[in-house]
Design goal:
alpha/beta; TIM Barrel; 355 residues; nine-stranded mixed β-sheet; 12 helices; three-stranded antiparallel β-sheet; Enolase-like, domain 1; 23% strand; 39% helix; globular
């Protein structure tokens, strides 16, 4: 079956409530939708969220797909997807989010052509659902506590965004813990906003409030600082922005610089790349989880199928943020009782409403 056409379309989907972090203030989710069509008429869809801090935008991703990757893909046999992906990497370095959007579309088309869910194409189902961690935007302590209490009542774990100001962040965490009680899973995300010494001070305070994980406390390229925080933190330290490639993950794991890695198909550039990181983590006793910012549920559906078929990925991931945006042209994925069930339909298991 040959790949007959690749199409791209930029999507802009407003947030129902702004998401404020130490480095961004999201009001609109911007991303790129990719459609792959075979000569038999089978359609597959992929998506990546794109914003300047990722190093890519909808405009740059669209350009590299249309001008660079599309000529290398159209006319190829879809069943040779592994070879196609290798050729994509040989042709173009970097641009992980553009590659991920195109690859997801091709995987979706391949699974739909075989009339199976994507997780079966990836080796079979290891788990039937993914439990969800939901983000809580930076805000006043009482506002964050109120939002956290509502999310926790729906069975969701929590990820609290931090501002990078110790005197303000600790009261936020204390207010949330007081509101939700001791039984709710909480992690915090500093989004690179602390220096090592202050991050260690914050980590000690986080431990007092039963926080499980402290994500990306220091800037992404400060690996020695990350290691310093890990050595002195009573809370598990997780890398996110510090892991942009499999080589980054290998270096952090080899040197025992973190307790966990938070990655994603779009962040790292593809399903195979995530699997390499997950297997590396599993072999070394380090947690590996998936996350996604708000965008079309197409991206989350791919992550759910990947997590469902990969034992080394944690069963608790940061997905489901498609619930906080409007205008997604797809349906079929929901968060219920704190979890997303693995779709049973063909391919990604989500459907297009139509434009």
């Amino acid at each position: 079956m040959k790949i007959a056409e690749i199409e791209t379309r930029a999507l802009e989907m407003p947030y129902t409530k702004p998401l404020v972090t130490a480095t961004n203030n999201f009001t609109v989710a911007r991303g790129l939708l990719v459609k792959a069509v075979t000569d038999a008429g089978v359609e597959g869809y992929g998506y990546s969220d794109l914003f300047p801090r990722t190093g890519e935008t909808p405009e740059t991703a669209r350009h590299v797909i249309e001008a660079v990757l599309k000529p290398k893909v159209v006319g190829r046999e879809l069943e040779e997807l592994a070879r196609i992906r290798a050729d994509m990497d040989h042709t173009l370095t970097g641009n992980p989010r553009a590659k991920a959007a195109l690859e997801i579309a091709l995987y979706d088309a391949l699974a739909r052509s075989a009339h199976v869910p994507l997780n079966l194409m990836l080796g079979g189902r290891y788990r039937g659902e993914i439990k969800v961690i939901k983000m809580v935007s930076v805000g006043a302590p009482d506002a964050m506590a109120e939002e956290a209490k509502r999310l926790a009542s729906d069975g969701l774990a929590l990820k609290l965004k931090m501002s990078g100001k110790l005197a303000e962040d600790l009261p936020r965490v204390a207010a949330v813990r007081n509101a939700v009680g001791d039984g709710v899973f909480i992690k915090v995300d500093a989004n690179e906003s602390y220096d090592a010494k202050t991050a260690i001070r914050l980590a000690r305070g986080l431990a007092d409030h039963g926080v499980e994980i402290f994500e990306q406390p220091v800037p992404r390229d400060q690996f020695d600082a990350l290691w310093e925080v890990k050595k002195h933190s009573p809370v598990k330290i997780e890398a996110d922005q510090s892991v942009r490639t499999v080589a980054d993950a290998q270096m952090l794991v080899k040197n025992r610089m973190v307790d966990g890695i938070n990655t994603g198909i779009q962040k790292i550039g593809g399903i195979g790349e995530v699997r390499r990181i997950a297997e590396l983590c599993e072999l070394n006793g380090i947690r590996c989880a998936l996350s996604n910012t708000a965008g079309s549920m197409v991206g989350d559906a791919a992550a759910v199928h990947l997590a469902a078929s990969t034992p080394g990925i944690a069963p608790l991931c940061e997905l489901g943020e498609f619930e906080v945006i409007t205008g997604d042209p797809f349906f079929g994925l929901t968060v219920e009782k704190g979890a997303i069930s693995v779709p049973e339909g063909e391919g990604l298991g989500v459907s297009l409403r139509g434009f």
